[in-house]
Specification:
The protein is an alpha/beta fold. The protein contains 13 helices and 13 strands. It folds into 2 domains: 153 residues, Aspartate Aminotransferase, domain 1; 238 residues, Type I PLP-dependent aspartate aminotransferase-like (Major domain) (Aspartate Aminotransferase, domain 2, 3-Layer(aba) Sandwich), CATH 3.40.640.10. Bound molecules: pyridoxal-5'-phosphate (PLP). Pyridoxal-5'-phosphate binds next to helix 5.
Length: 400
């Protein structure tokens, strides 16, 4: 059978490929602590389940293609409450941020097009972009400069006649970088000047630890035609399994095209949108403050642990719940195999996401890893301790 050359060019998620080795380690009785995946252990607020339990309809019908009205209105009020007035027509309900990305790329990309993405980046972007026939052109950043990318010198040399869009993640996964106001302004300016779409993935919006207000690229109304926001309840409400997100844009033409796909797939899941509407409606500022404070405790636990490991380099993350770390080893993937197959301390070992999978440029990220700090501080401290012990054991074995 013949398959699409586009799907053949895609790869499996680099974050999941160690799964068989985890199963093997666990079968030998070892406990594997996870620093690798973005699945928070924080409880989903009760409002979600309550709304679903009290759903009064006797038929679980299709929702309107642009979204369940109460959900779309709740999203509109959430943005308007932050100071970014939008109308319901600027919003389309999706199956998570993931479908929002796929819809956007389907509307704006075709064979041979390029999307500028600062690397390291969230690996699933690659699949969603490749499947359209377009490719990522990475904007290189360096650990030494804290992975910052928002400057003209870094971005403009990569813009050419194939460039259709810039894709930014703010706050950043995997880097934890949060753009400063002047950097956000610059991103809007560059998109406008070069007539490019600016896709802003803001699924970690509230998770910022520097005292700044959560922000959106919707702020830049003079770039309203360029800006497309991707958002989701997954991380904000610790509801990754609900699969509810949005595309938000004031570009009417884009939204009219996106509606074709929304109608084609009929609707996003009705009940999940009902639950998501209740989440947006019931959340107080105190909820967001508590969430932020909890992740900040987790970040601090990881940062404290990492600073005790000799030779490890990292920047304290400013947002989201990830950071990239440079390790004093030849190859972080080899270290991961060692940790799963040969290493243990009191019956425990640790798992992270090797850095190479977050880069498009071959060879980059080989001695880097991404850590997700989504478990409790005590478990995080132990996980980082195991990482330090594992590095020492791995290097001792290589040298001996
Ligand atoms: C940067 C980023 N964007 C989008 C997503 C997709 O989120 P979801 O489809 O659960 O809304 C994720 C999930 O980890 C992410 O990290």
């Amino acid at each position: 059978m013949k398959f699409s050359s586009k799907i053949e060019a895609c790869g499996l998620s680099p974050i999941r490929k160690f799964r068989p080795y985890v199963v093997e380690a666990e079968a030998k009785g070892r406990k594997v602590l996870h620093l690798n995946i973005g699945q928070p252990d924080i409880e989903t607020p009760k409002a979600f389940f309550d709304a679903i339990r009290s759903f009064g309809e006797s038929v679980l019908a299709y929702a309107p293609s642009p979204g369940v009205e109460s959900y779309v209105e709740a999203v509109r009020d959430y943005y308007t409450g932050m100071g970014y007035p939008i109308s319901c027509d600027d919003i389309l309900a999706t199956y998570g941020g993931s479908e929002a990305l796929q819809i956007i790329f389907s509307c704006i990309l075709e064979d041979g097009d390029e999307v500028l993405v600062p690397e390291p980046y969230y690996p699933n972007y690659d699949t969603f972009i490749r499947i359209t026939g377009a490719t990522i052109r990475p904007i290189p950043t360096t650990p030494e400069e804290g992975y910052r990318f928002a400057s003209r010198e870094r971005i403009e040399p990569f813009i050419n006649e194939h460039t259709r869009a810039i894709l930014m993640t703010n706050p950043g996964n995997p880097t934890g970088v949060v753009l400063r106001p002047e950097e956000r302004q610059l991103m809007a300016d560059i998109a406008k000047e070069h007539d490019l779409f600016l896709i802003s993935d803001e699924v970690y919006r509230e998770l910022v630890y520097g005292g700044e207000k959560p922000s959106s690229m919707l702020e830049y109304t003079d770039a309203a035609e360029n800006v497309i926001v991707v958002d989701s309840v997954s991380k904000r409400f610790s509801a990754t399994g609900s699969r509810v997100g949005v595309v938000v844009s004031r570009n009417k033409e884009l939204m009219a095209h996106a509606m074709k796909i929304c109608q084609g797939r009929l609707c996003a899941a009705t009940l999940d949108q009902v639950g998501a509407a209740a989440l947006y409606r019931s959340m107080t500022p105190a909820y967001y403050e508590d969430l932020r404070a909890e992740y900040q405790r987790r970040r601090d636990a990881v940062v404290e642990g990492l600073s005790k490991i000799p030779g490890v380099k990292f920047n304290s993350p400013e947002g989201a719940f990830y950071l990239m770390v440079t390790l004093p080893v030849d190859d972080a993937e080899k270290l991961q195999y060692f940790l799963l197959q040969e290493f243990e301390d009191h019956g425990e070992t640790v798992m992270y996401a090797p850095g190479e999978g977050f880069y498009a440029t071959p060879g980059k990220g080989r001695n880097e890893i991404r850590i997700a700090y989504v478990t409790n501080p005590a478990e995080l401290r132990r996980s980082v301790e195991l990482l330090g012990l594992g590095i020492a054991a791995y290097n001792a074995k290589r040298e001996g």
